[in-house]
Amino acid sequence: MPKSKRNRPVTLSKTKKKGREHKEVIVSGIRDAVDSYTSVFVFTYENMRNLKFKEFREQLKSTSRFFLGSNKVMQVALGRSIADEIRPGIHKVSKLLRGNSGLLVTNMAKDEVRQLFDEYEDYDFARTGSNATETVELKEGPLDQFTHEMEPFLRKQGMPVRLNKGVVELVSDFVVCEEGKPLSPESARILRLLGNKMATFKLYLVCRWSVDEFELYKEAPDDSDVESL
């Protein structure tokens, strides 16, 4: 096995002492994991939900480790070029850490990992600023799903409602959101009340590295295309 370069000194960006120490812990953890596991995957994600990701990570904790955080710190840990990479060819992984990305370091078979990622998705309520995946319009008339106590709150969200004999009623048609347009805070709240889950938390594999193989599955997005954690 080629000699590991993981013990080389690392120059990190200018930070306060506490921040630097934290980065050094991450770098050390990644390098330890690369030495201990057989494969390294880069993955990207959409609509991250921390609780759901924690549950997914727990399923694999006996065979794998996940790393999320600063792409630059993870790149430093792996090495950004042939000259400073910690294992032969692993700088190719580093170059694909862009945007909403993370590392999976694992002993699982590659086909098993790909199946898990391909099959995993979880639905949740969309957040303010997310693009609506469909147009939602409520028609004039009674809104039986809401109790009369909800009428003042619904009015504050911009809905043209009134109480009619104790029943919440729309006095005119109301468009909650339009497909492809960003959700306002009010729209996001109404969709939650309606039980309409527009966000899909999804993980995508970008590439895999092992001692004897590098596989590219899909291109990682540019930093400008996604919002970091």
UniProtKB/TrEMBL annotation:
Principal place of residence: cytoplasm
Tree of life domain: Eukaryota
Matches recorded under Gene3D superfamilies: 3.30.70.1730, 3.90.105.20
Localization in the cell: Cytoplasm; Nucleus, Nucleolus
CDD domains the UniProt entry points to: Ribosomal_P0_like
SUPFAM superfamilies (UniProt xref): Ribosomal protein L10-like
Keyword Mitochondrion included in the entry's annotation: no
Gene Ontology biological-process entries: nuclear-transcribed mRNA catabolic process; ribosomal large subunit assembly; rRNA processing
Transmembrane feature ranges: none
Self-association state and partner proteins as the record states: Associates with the pre-60S ribosomal particle.
PANTHER family according to UniProt: MRNA TURNOVER PROTEIN 4 HOMOLOG (PTHR45841:SF1), MRNA TURNOVER PROTEIN 4 MRTO4 (PTHR45841)
Protein family according to the UniProt entry: Belongs to the universal ribosomal protein uL10 family.
Identification of the protein by name: Ribosome assembly factor mrt4
